[in-house]
Amino acid sequence: MTDSVQILELNAFRSASPPTEPGSHLGRRLRNFGAASVLFYREPIEMVSASGPWIIAADGRRYLDFYNNVPSVGHCHPRVVAAVASQMAKININTRYLCPIVDDYLDKLKDTLPSALSNVIMTCSGSEANDLALRIAAEASGGTGFVVTENAYHGNTRYVTEISPAAQKVAVRPNYVATIPAPSESGSVGEEFAKNLRTAICALESRQQKFAGFICDSIFSSDGIFSDPAGFLKLAVTETRKAGGVFIADEVQPGFARSGETFWGFARHGITPDIVTMGKPMGNGFPMAAMATRPDLLVRFCKDVGYFNTFGGNPVAAAAGLAVLDVIRDEGLQENALQIGQYLKGRLSDIARSRRRIGAIRGAGLFLGVDICRDGRPDAAATSNVINRLKEHGVLVGAAGRTASTLKLRPPLCLTTTEADIFADALEKALSKVD
Amino acid sequence: MTDSVQILELNAFRSASPPTEPGSHLGRRLRNFGAASVLFYREPIEMVSASGPWIIAADGRRYLDFYNNVPSVGHCHPRVVAAVASQMAKININTRYLCPIVDDYLDKLKDTLPSALSNVIMTCSGSEANDLALRIAAEASGGTGFVVTENAYHGNTRYVTEISPAAQKVAVRPNYVATIPAPSESGSVGEEFAKNLRTAICALESRQQKFAGFICDSIFSSDGIFSDPAGFLKLAVTETRKAGGVFIADEVQPGFARSGETFWGFARHGITPDIVTMGKPMGNGFPMAAMATRPDLLVRFCKDVGYFNTFGGNPVAAAAGLAVLDVIRDEGLQENALQIGQYLKGRLSDIARSRRRIGAIRGAGLFLGVDICRDGRPDAAATSNVINRLKEHGVLVGAAGRTASTLKLRPPLCLTTTEADIFADALEKALSKVD
Asked: What rounded mean pLDDT belongs to chain B?
């Protein structure tokens, strides 16, 4: 998985000594989840309540959440909770009947998107949205081959797992998938990235896999967070279209104002994707996701199969989604992400001057990556060490990148300067023990 | 789709004359959903509120819901609404942290399942659960080939759509899928069904597709509802295992007490599946689903890929799921489904004696199928006609089966005798106009 370094995979069948007393919560979990148990930290935390960027654990400790990008407008935001509770008590039904709130939501959501992407399909998860996006791209292009980045993560269905190197413990490289390195943020980023894409398309075609499309997350989260210079994706999009492919912007990670500069990650690059997928923060925890595309692409796809999703686009999801959009606007969260993100980046740069363990600091808004190094090289062990020490200091954070040596910072967008300082101070302390 | 006969596919791009005034709700919907618009009835109904088995439309009319099997304990059940609202206000986080309510739920859910199926993976939709189940079966068997029924529907991801003939407008028959006819309910049902399965397995192997498994919905919903004689699935399961395959019980439709006799549809047949998938009524509308299996199958799968689902198994889903299990128990809904189902079947049989349009009446509990015929043969046009007339009489119902000539009855499990009578009376009136 993308967060492998700080995940202790508590596997009752393979792990030698997990604390599995039958009566303990951990013991119950291992019996229930079995080999699929994936828990953070060697001593997993039991959580009981949360508010804003704070989570309270069963032992009374509170944690500043710099990890979870689902409760993006703040944990348990009262407006989202109220909207869900009220709509659930009224009606919750599928989209084969009309419910005005569903179209109220889609109209508002579309106001944030390029006007060309006027059709939206609502799903339950980003995985479902990406699975569908790949199928639409294949149908539109008449192709099968996809290009992804080397440590891309796009979800958990069979199709989407196959194109997600980061999801594979044992590398599966289906013939129809070609990978390219994540962008470098140095030199001619756009030219280099487009050149690699061109090479990958050629590789696919040499394997008799007609190019169907290029899918990427514009913040390159699982690759290690690469955002700059804004605009570098333009050439890759041009290249994709020149080769007859479809460009899919996976906005599950960067979407919904996280980058601060723009509402969508792709907008920072000044591009209009053919398909946009979104999920995680869309309902602040209510399970919902979506795929937006051009009518002409959807018509072609629906001719042969069509698509219906039982839970997707139900009125409760619409109520949650509307509340999230309203909160982002009313609380100025995009601006806040920009300002607090800049402030935090400043503090991180200050720390980097005195702490040689910090390498590059990348990212936009409240989606930042901090490389942890030893003698200028990525150091996964030190990164893991920092993450565990940050936990001791009451901060939750994860790692990203192929070598899992980049701290991945994604606090709720309502973060304050004080809370940014709490993180920065904790990081400084954690680094002092690692040095 | 499975409900094709009564679905008017309002496609702005292909339909000649949908009422698409730009300001109308229908106009907005068509602009938002585009070619993926799927709405019931030529004049789609706008719904505003719902309670128990009743839905209130925008024009003030109320409809008795005999169609939707998601709000299975009754639309907007106050205990489910309260459980979701309360948990959402407290904490909603992913399963990489511990939350006792998640394991409280899984412990209770597992009490309803065979003890061998002790590992559960929570997902957002039945589609995700089935997609995962197929992958686990393939891994466990070392095979690729699956057998399904001729009009099976198992969901909407790419993988699951490929094995769902009912989801395909244009038939796709990948090499790895073989179909068998739905069970007949006449003659030696079990022997015939197992014989067909054996033939299909041979067909797969003649195409160099090693048999991976057999997946079916034990009520055969989209095939036209075939439930009897209980036990007929036993031989097919034996045949599946003899051929080295995995038996997957898709309980998305029959699960959670709907059949009245047992909590799970497979239990009516006295079988223990290798994998059970579930969804729709699991959270009474809160998007959640799951897959239960044996630890040994999960270990093998997790060795190579593992699985994590961001929204799956969150504490709010657990709260919804717990409330559903509690309501089924406290309100005696399984017993009610059995009793009211028998009563309804009796009324339908009485009607059948005077109305020659009714052919066979099948099903268990509150999952019934009623064939609509002309001269003893399936009549899709008459079925569609009956469905539209039932709407005029304030009853929502759908069609099932390859020829879409079976009325599919799935009211909430809290249905009363009075409400069963309202349906039966409306059906009698509708049939009188069709005859």
From this structure: 94
Tokens representing A371?
Answer: 């490389």
Of A373-377, B16-20, B331-335, B369-373, where does mean pLDDT reach its minimum? B16-20
Both A205 and A305 in a single domain?
yes
What tokens were used for B12? 């702005």
Return the CATH number at B143: 3.40.640.10
B78 touches A at CB < 8 Å: yes
Burial class (CB in 10 A: 0-12, 13-18, 19+), A272: middle
Half-sphere exposure of A301 (CA within 13 A, CB side): 27
* CATH at B348: 3.90.1150.10
Tell which A residues from 265 to 284 touch B, by Cβ distance under 8 Å. Answer: 279-280
Name the residue among A13, A76, A128 with its Cβ closest to that of B90.
Answer: A76
Residues of A in contact with B35 (CB under 8 A): 119, 295, 298-299, 301-303
Instruction: Give CA–CA dist B356/B225, Å, rounded.
Output: 20
Phi, psi torsion values for B76, nearest 5 degrees: 50, 40
- Specify if B372 maps to a domain: yes
CB-closest option in A279, A305, A314 to B167: A305
CB-CB neighbors (< 8 A) of A287 in chain B? 124, 286-288, 311, 314, 317
DSSP string, A27-56: HHHHHHHGGG--EESSSPPBEEEEEBTEEE
| Rounded CA separation A422/A399 (Å) | 19
Query: Does one domain contain both A69 and A82?
Result: no
Task: Give residue B14's pLDDT band: very low, low, confident or very high (50, 70, 90).
Answer: very low
Which of A271, A297, A330 is where one domain is finished?
A330
- What type of residue is B409? L
Digit-coded pLDDT (tens) for B265-323: 999 999 999 999 999 999 999 999 999 999 999 999 999 888 999 999 999 999 999 99
Tens-place pLDDT, residues B195-226: 999 999 999 999 999 999 999 999 999 999 99
Residues of chain B neighbouring A97 (CB-CB closer than 8 A): 39-40, 44-47
Residue A27 touches partner B, C-beta closer than 8 Å: no
Complex confidence, ipTM: 0.96
Residue B352 and residue B234 share a domain = no
Q: Are residues B271 and B362 in the same domain?
A: no
The number of distinct structural domains making up chain A is 2
Those residues of chain A that have pLDDT short of 70 are 1-20, 22, 435
Q: Given this model, what pLDDT does residue A304 score?
A: 84
Tokens 């709700």 — which residue?
B25
Does residue A38 lie in a domain region?
no
**A351 inside domain:** yes
Verify that B143 and B290 share a domain, yes or no.
yes
What SS3 class is residue A431?
A: helix
In a domain, A180, yes or no: yes
Q: Please, which pLDDT band fits residue B22 given cuts at 50, 70 and 90?
A: low
Residues B326 and B185 reside in one and the same domain: yes
Of the given ranges (A141-150, B2-11, B409-418), which has the lowest mean pLDDT? B2-11
CB contact under 8 A, A70 and B310: yes
Domain residue limits at B354: 52-73+332-434
pLDDT bracket for residue B90 (50, 70, 90): very high
Residues A320 and A351 in one domain: no
